[in-house]
UniProtKB/TrEMBL annotation:
It comes from the Bacteria. Belongs to the transferase hexapeptide repeat family. InterPro entries: Hexapep (IPR001451), Hexapep_transf_CS (IPR018357), Trans_hexapeptide_repeat (IPR050179), Trimer_LpxA-like_sf (IPR011004). GO terms for molecular function: transferase activity. PROSITE patterns: HEXAPEP_TRANSFERASES (PS00101). This is Hexapeptide transferase. The keyword DNA damage does not apply.
């Protein structure tokens, strides 16, 4: 991670976490306890919001973006596209193929695959080991669970949650949680 950021002109990585303030993460300091601390530190910082919750990540990203530029984290892997928006994280072992488009604040997690000509919307999360087939379109704020597969050319509506191990063989036209093989909407149980 550090070498990729250094190549982008970022000289250091700092974390913000109230519980870890004054400690370090992977050898990097945790000097900030709050968003207010980051904003007070000045505009020479570049940030990436790493929260797992898509909506909270979007809100914090937008709040910080008013005053501080976003960075992009690309860990060692295979990234073959230039269409990666600000605040995106592409983690170790992930593959993002030719002409894929990744929206702002999105996480492409460990060993996930986003094939050629895909579009993944802003503030989405492609969990570890998930695969999105060529030409698929994933909306904003979507969670594709660990080991899930979205077949080529399929569309997943904004706000949808695709459960771990699910197989999305047909378009998902609305939000909600989709699970199984093939993926079907999960029914709510009234208690």
């Amino acid at each position: 991670m550090a070498s990729q950021l250094t190549q982008a002109g970022v000289r250091s990585i700092v974390f913000c976490d109230h519980a870890l303030q004054g400690q370090s993460v992977c050898g990097y300091p945790v000097p900030f306890a709050s968003v207010q601390d980051i904003l007070a530190a000045g505009s020479d910082l570049r940030v990436v919001v790493t929260l797992g919750d898509n909506e909270r990540r979007r809100q914090l990203h937008e709040r910080l973006a008013e005053r501080i530029a976003s960075a992009v984290i690309i860990e060692p892997g295979r990234v073959y596209t230039d269409h990666i928006a600000e605040g995106t994280q592409i983690l170790a072992g992930a593959v993002v193929n030719v002409e894929a488009r990744i929206g702002a604040g999105t996480i492409i997690n460990t060993n996930a695959v986003v094939e050629h000509d895909c579009s993944v919307g802003s503030f989405s999360h492609v969990a570890p080991g998930a695969v999105i087939g060529g030409g698929a379109v994933v909306g904003d704020g979507v969670l594709i669970g660990a080991g899930a597969v979205v077949l080529p050319g399929v569309r997943v509506a904004s706000g949808a949650i695709v459960g771990g191990g699910a197989l999305v063989a047909r378009d998902i036209s609305h939000g909600g949680t989709w699970t199984g093989v093939p993926a079907r909407p999960q029914q709510r149980v009234n208690r």
